[in-house]
Design a protein that fits this description.
Blueprint (H helix, E strand, L loop, with lengths): L2 H30 L4 E4 L3 E7 L9 E5 L3 E6 L6 E4 L10 E5 L3 E7 L34 H18 L5 H16 L12
Antiparallel strand pairs: 1-2, 2-7, 3-4, 4-5, 6-7
Length: 193
């Protein structure tokens, strides 16, 4: 690699890092502006909704449905309410009042192999591609295992978006290289599987 190519690669990496930092900051600001905070694991979502000090369960109206969530003080507009971004297992989801000032909501995901982009569909989304599970960071894995997990995660995301997997991308790249090396061959009617 020449010095120019090396410099261009470094500049591109720095620009990508700067965009990632800006995206994370924007995401954090959007999430901080919500009337609740939330965390998730692959199988569940936990939400903390601040309420006035002294609030008791009987003061609240809480609706947990397969695809809807609403919480608020009786006789007032909901603090949060709307369509959930994904379906939940209603029978396994719970809520409770903590220290008379927070409502803790635990939602069990129906699909426990999917990261949620947001809780309610009309709220800002997070970038689920940047999620690292709390109990197992990719950096904790050895090189070979980490590579396999990253490939599986990438392929899963690609499939969900209707894009080619890493193996399909490799085949396409190999075909492009072969075509470039053999311009005399006509591939216009070729069917590649």
């Amino acid at each position: 690699m020449s010095n120019i190519e090396d410099s261009q690669a470094k500049t591109a990496a720095e620009e990508r890092e700067a965009r990632d930092r800006e995206e994370r900051l924007r995401e954090q600001q959007e999430q901080a502006a919500l009337p609740y905070s939330w965390t998730q694991e692959l199988g569940d979502v936990d939400i903390i909704v601040p309420v006035p000090q002294g609030t008791r369960a009987r003061d609240l109206t809480v609706v947990l449905q397969k695809k809807k969530l609403s919480i608020g003080l009786k006789g007032h507009e909901p603090i949060m309410g709307g369509d959930l971004c994904k379906e939940i297992k209603v029978e396994d989801s719970t809520w409770t009042v903590q220290d008379s000032k927070n409502v803790l909501i635990h939602l069990e995901k129906l699909n426990d192999q999917t990261w949620w982009e947001n809780v309610l569909t009309h709220h800002p989304k997070i970038n689920t591609q940047k999620i690292e599970p709390m109990n197992s960071k990719l950096s904790d894995l050895d090189g070979e295992t980490r590579g396999m997990v990253e490939k599986m995660m990438f392929d899963n995301q690609q499939k969900q978006m209707g894009r080619p997997t890493s193996d399909e991308l490799k085949k396409m790249e190999a075909l492009k290289k072969f075509q470039a090396a053999h311009p005399e061959l006509d591939f216009s009617n070729a069917k590649i599987s």
